[in-house]
Design goal:
A seven-stranded mixed sheet has the order 16-15-14-17-18-20-19, with helices on both faces. It has a six-stranded mixed sheet with strand order 2-6-5-4-1-3. It has a five-stranded mixed sheet with strand order 7-8-9-10-11. It has about 400 residues and is of the alpha/beta class. About 25% of the residues lie in helices and about 30% in strands. Helix 2 packs parallel to helix 4, helix 5 runs parallel beside helix 6 and helix 9 crosses helix 10. The N and C termini lie far apart (about 65 Å). The radius of gyration is 23 Å and the shape is globular. The chain is built from ten helices and 20 strands. The longest helix has 18 residues.
Amino acid sequence: MTGESAMRDAYRIHLQRGRDRSVRRRHPWIFSGAIAELEATEEARPGDLGIVLTADGTELGCAMVNPAVPLVARVLRFDGGPIDGAYFRQRFRRAASLRADVIPEGTTAMRLFNAEGDGVPGLIVDRYGEFLVVQCVALGMSRLEALWLPALEEVFAPRGILDRTQKARHDANLDRRDRLLAGEDPGEPVWIEEDHIRHRVDLAAGQKTGLYLDQRENRRLIRSLARGRRVLNAFAYTGGFGTSAGLGGAREVVAVETSGAALEVAREDWAANGLDPAKLHCLREPAQEVLRRDEEPFDLIILDPPAFAKERGQVERAARAYKDVNLWAIKRLGPGAYLATFSCSHHIDLVLFQKILFGASIDARRPLQWISRLGAGPDHPVHLDHPQGEYLKGFLLRAME
C-alpha cells in the first residue's frame, strides 16, 4: 500500500459455483465455506486486499482478506473502483450528511460512522463533543489506517481521535491496543449533551466507546413515560435511562448496577442536571437479585443487560438468562406499568427475543400489551444488504389491568 492507493491484487478469491448470490446482492461478508480457492501473491499478508471472482472468473468486487478467521473477506467495493483516500472521504461525507439530518439540537454525542451500515465494514467512529473514538475491528481495516485516518481528520476536524478497539469484538488475530491516533488526548472524562441532558463520559475506560449511544432514542421515550412513576433502571451502567426518567418527572428512580464507579457517575449526572438527590436510589447489586425480591412494584422498568450470547453456541444458555430476568421484571410490574426490555446479543434475533418474552409472560401469569418495537437510533443505520447489522432490539410492553 503506497500513497493514496492500496493494492487490489494481493489475493484472488474464487467463489464456489453457486455461492456468489449474496455477493451479487451486495452482501459484504464472505465466509470460508463459500470459497473454492484463495490465491495469494508471495508478498500477501492477512489483511491485504483482494479481488472477488465468481467460479467463471467474473469480477464482483474488492475485499479485505484475512485467511486466519472464518469471515475470510469483507467487501469494500462492488463497482471496481480503487480503495484510496478519496474512497474514505466520500463515505465519511455521506455519513456526515445523514447525521446532519437526523441528530437533534442539544446533542453533541453520536455515532458518526457505523461500519457496514455506512458502507465500510470493520470501522466504527463515535463523536463525543470535540473528540472522536474509533473501533477498528477488522484486520484489513487496521492495515488501511494510513488512508482512513487522514480522511477522518479532514472531514470531521476533531480535537483528538482515540482508538478503543481493545475491548471490542474484533478479528482474533488483530493486535490493536487502545491509543491516541491523532490530535489531543482529553486526559479526563468529558461532558457531552444528549437532548440537552448532560452526561459525563470516560473515553479511556467507559463501556463500548464511552457511552451507550445506541439508546438515545429509547432514553427519550423513557423520559416521556416517567412522570409520576416509580422507575427501576436495571443494569444501569452510568444511569442514562434513570437521569432521563428523572427529568421526565419520575417520583423515584432506583438505579441497579454492580460497578460502584459507574454508580458514582450516575449520581454526578443526576446532580449535573439539577435533579433532587432524594429521588435517586443507587443499589450496587446484581439486577437479577433485586428483581427477585418481593417488594413494592414499579411503574416503569428498564432492562438493558449486557450481551448474554457473544457466540452462536451460547444462544440456548442466553435465552434462558433473558427469560429469567424478564420473568422477574414482569412480576415486579404494577397495574398498567411499562417494561422497556432490550437484547444487544447479535445471535438473539428479534423473532427469538419476542418468543422469549412471550414465554416469560406466560410463566409470570401476567398478560402484556406490545406497545412498540425498539432499536438503535438513526445514527446507527443498518444497510438493507446487511441485515445482520441490526444488533439492538427491544420491546416496550405494558402490564394489562
